[in-house]
Amino acid sequence: MLQFIYQTSLMPALDIIDRKAVTLLECPSKRQLYTVMGTSGIVYICFPDSKYCSCPAYNYSVLLKDDHIMCKHILAIKLSNAMNVTVRRNISDKEMRATLLHME
In the list 20, 45, 63, 101, which could disulfide-bond 54, CB 3.0-4.6 Å? Predict the structure, then answer.
């Protein structure tokens, strides 16, 4: 069923999970965001309460062409959370601010 719905995104998302490349960053002010290390080594930023990802595929396939409902990074986050294998990391508010300022 998942393969039918997510077609080309499922296997790459599972690869991301296998590499333990999904991290939830949390800071004392209760802000949260996910970082996902893509297969190319680039770290993408994703927000927990939305389906937004900073990757080019999100902008092109999800927003522009509207032929995908989410990118492989968002799918990896959802599956990683469902499987309870998301890496959690506490960071300072200053580190969170710096991460957000350097989003791609």
Answer: 45
Residue 34 backbone dihedrals phi, psi, to 5 degrees = -105, 145
Using DSSP, state whether 59 is helix, strand or coil.
helix
3-state secondary structure of 60: helix
pLDDT digits (tens, 9 = 90+) for 30-65: 999 999 998 888 999 998 788 889 988 877 777 667
3-class state of residue 9 by DSSP: helix
The pLDDT of residue 72 is above 60: yes
The letter for the amino acid at 60 is: Y
Rounded CA-CA distance 14/26 in Å is: 23
